From TrEMBL:
<comment type="similarity">
    <text>Belongs to the LemA family.</text>
</comment>
<keyword id="KW-1133">Transmembrane helix</keyword>
<dbReference type="GO" id="GO:0016020">
    <property type="term" value="C:membrane"/>
</dbReference>
<protein>
    <submittedName>
        <fullName>LemA protein</fullName>
    </submittedName>
</protein>
<dbReference type="Pfam" id="PF04011">
    <property type="entry name" value="LemA"/>
</dbReference>
<dbReference type="InterPro" id="IPR007156">
    <property type="entry name" value="MamQ_LemA"/>
</dbReference>
<keyword id="KW-0472">Membrane</keyword>
<keyword id="KW-0812">Transmembrane</keyword>
<dbReference type="InterPro" id="IPR023353">
    <property type="entry name" value="LemA-like_dom_sf"/>
</dbReference>
């Protein structure tokens, strides 16, 4: 009788322990995703300031700026939707910003103003912080999903009705950019 009671208490304590670990992992995923959203919002706030600064330097290219602001508005709206909508909208915004920075490289008068350079620097820092937040989030997702796949936490996860979390992935355009090696032309290099 005493042995059965001790076993029941041990099972109950084990259940509580694993339940709490799963709850902590689930909360880490939510916190990581929140960190991504904070950085995305920061980027969204910087974009209009960048466009306004550049517009003052270059009046004739308003369609470039309008496109960036339109994509930014879609990205802000996507923050209220599901993760896939956020990923798609952010991929569009990233592509628009890459086009803009390419355009800015071809027009030195844009980057000649100090505020444009400062905003560009802040955007680059924000991109780094977004990458760090994505890595943290994806690490938390991996840990959580592994717990949902492992015994005995998978049993407890099912009793809690927990579902696997989705990784914050790169868009197809970002993957394509990563896979393509830019041509490197070094002086004196042999072909």
């Amino acid at each position: 009788m005493l042995t059965a009671l001790a076993a029941a208490i041990l099972i109950f304590l084990g259940y509580i322990y694993f339940h709490n670990r799963l709850a902590a992992a689930r909360n880490s995923v939510a916190t990581g995703y929140s960190g991504i959203l904070v950085q995305l919002k920061r980027r969204h706030e910087l974009v209009p300031a960048l466009v306004q600064s550049v517009r003052s330097a270059l009046h004739q290219e308003s369609q470039v700026f309008d496109r960036i602001l339109d994509v930014r508005e879609k990205a802000v709206g996507a923050l209220q939707m599901d993760q896939k909508a956020v990923e798609a909208a952010e991929a569009d915004l990233s592509a628009s910003l890459r086009k803009f920075f390419g355009y800015a490289e071809d027009h030195p008068e844009i980057t000649s103003t100090g505020n444009v350079r400062e905003l560009q620097k802040q955007l680059e820092e924000t991109e780094d912080q977004i990458s760090a937040a994505r890595r943290l989030y994806n690490g938390n997702v991996e840990r959580f999903n592994t717990m949902l796949d492992s015994i005995p936490t998978n049993w407890i996860g099912r009793s809690m009705r927990l579902e696997r979390a989705e990784l914050f992935t790169l868009s197809e355009a970002e993957v394509k950019t990563l896979r393509s090696m830019p041509p490197i032309d070094l002086p004196g290099a042999q072909s």
